[in-house]
Write a structure and sequence with these properties.
Blueprint lengths: L3 H11 L4 E2 L12 E5 L4 H6 L6 H13 L7 E4 L4 E6 L7 E4 L4 H6 L1 H11 L3 E4 L2 H8 L5 H4 L4 E3 L2 E5 L4 E4 L4 E3 L5 H6 L4 H22 L2
Parallel strand pairs: 2-3, 2-6
Antiparallel strand pairs: 1-4, 4-5, 7-10, 8-9
The chain binds uracil.
Length: 214
Amino acid sequence: MLPEQLIERCKERIKPYACEGFVYGKGPRHPILMFVGEAPGETEIENGIPFSGRAGKEFNHFLDHLGVTREDIFITSAVRSRPYKWGQPRGKEKRKYNRTPNQKEIAAHAPILDAEIAYAEPKVIVPMGRIAYWRLLGENPRMEEVTGSFITSPIRELDDWDKNTYRITADTYTLFPIYHPAAILYRRRLETAMYEHLDRLKAYLAIEKKDKSP
Ligand code: URA
């Protein structure tokens, strides 16, 4: 799907940072939804399947609620490798922990997401959590203020591969930001709002389906 050369360049770009593995985004062209996460975790880099760990279970509930399957949608994230940090809880072995990707790591893999969006041309982009939101829209609002509503806006794409600066796309996109599934795991009180947001998205999908039927 994406040129292997582009992937290789991006793998080189992330080498200076504490990131490991590489998980490809997955999905068809012209999906109704493209979900954009943050970065894969330990499980994902082992099996190569996006959202297959703990957050993935929650993500699967989202898809069930929407009545879509993984085949219908595109799944990707801002960063395609696992950012890690070493840690050693008292009495336990030293091991790697997931961490949030930083701006340099996000820029290192930005051309991949740009190319995936250009290739897939999703009807709606669903940024999950603040990293995906910042990557695409360049802002860092409180997620409760922006989740669950449609936004029509240009997005950011990497402009200068050396300076890591972004430009704003000429095209306008439809986005529907939601909480990251991991946020629901850690803050169960977000669940009610989350499923209200998914209901809104589901209503939109139903209208789209109706419009398409003969
Ligand atoms: N979080 C992500 O953003 N992607 C995954 O694949 C797993 C967790």
